[in-house]
Q: What sequence folds into this?
């Protein structure tokens, strides 16, 4: 029987890797993929506690997290496509139209 | 025991795939490693006796969202981006701060891990009706968030169509 804290440590590891990916990469598509990693880590956390307390509410919350992740990924990729059509780049450093 | 071996196998695969997602140069390779990370997370869900979410994760996340990602990576010109520097100028500070926060959270989890073992003895047995129970709770107790999620999906659909048009 795996203790709940093992699942929480796994969730923490995935969260850390996702946050490092968001803060460090220049390619915005990989930044979006790191955001999906963070949402996945949160889901593992929710479902681990759902099993720990024996209620199914955590799994329902995880369904909503997956729904929100799908919506956000679709919009984010649409924005990337629209920007790429105008500026021909996917690197975050070169998206500086609003800088002074 | 099989349970322990499967947990360590899926956990190692998830973490190693996640590290590779963040590290490799080619965005298509990154998407493939994210797919393996999501599949091993689905295995973790199955170990946690969440059978409905195991299926939802594979169908929705891997079969929907990752296919969308791969389509967009193909639409965007990769050749220029692969030869550039992959990490921005703040990588050392960002890594340091993130590791500090993660160490803090890790200490919190390890300090409180005794609290998580007390109730482990009464963890429920394998529930063959997990899907039915999720459905009951979703449509009775969480009916309002369910409807709001459907409106969210409608908004996302309209937004994605508008974003991808050539002329609005």
A:
């Amino acid at each position: 029987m795996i203790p709940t804290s093992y699942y929480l440590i796994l969730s923490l590891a995935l969260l850390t890797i996702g946050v490092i990916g968001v803060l460090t990469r220049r390619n915005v598509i990989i930044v979006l993929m790191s955001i999906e990693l963070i949402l996945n880590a949160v889901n593992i956390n929710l479902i681990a506690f759902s099993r720990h307390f024996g209620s199914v509410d955590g799994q329902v919350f995880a369904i909503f997290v997956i729904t929100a992740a799908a919506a956000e990924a679709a919009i984010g990729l649409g924005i990337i496509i629209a920007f790429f059509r105008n500026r021909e780049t996917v690197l975050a450093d070169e998206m500086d139209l609003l800088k002074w | 025991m099989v349970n322990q071996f499967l947990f360590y196998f899926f956990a190692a695969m998830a973490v190693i795939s996640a590290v590779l997602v963040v590290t490799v140069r080619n965005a298509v390779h990154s998407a493939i490693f994210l797919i393996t990370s999501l599949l091993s997370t689905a295995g973790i869900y199955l170990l946690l006796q969440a059978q409905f979410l195991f299926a939802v994760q594979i169908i929705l996340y891997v079969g929907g969202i990752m296919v969308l990602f791969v389509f967009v990576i193909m639409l965007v010109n990769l050749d220029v981006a692969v030869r550039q520097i992959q990490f921005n100028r703040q990588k050392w500070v960002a890594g340091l701060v993130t590791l500090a926060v993660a160490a803090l959270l890790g200490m919190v989890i390890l300090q409180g891990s005794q609290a998580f073992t007390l109730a482990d003895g009464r963890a429920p047995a394998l529930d063959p009706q997990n899907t039915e129970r999720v459905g009951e709770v979703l449509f009775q107790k969480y009916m309002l968030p369910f409807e709001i999620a459907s409106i969210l999906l409608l908004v996302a659909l309209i937004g994605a169509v508008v974003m991808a048009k050539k002329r609005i």
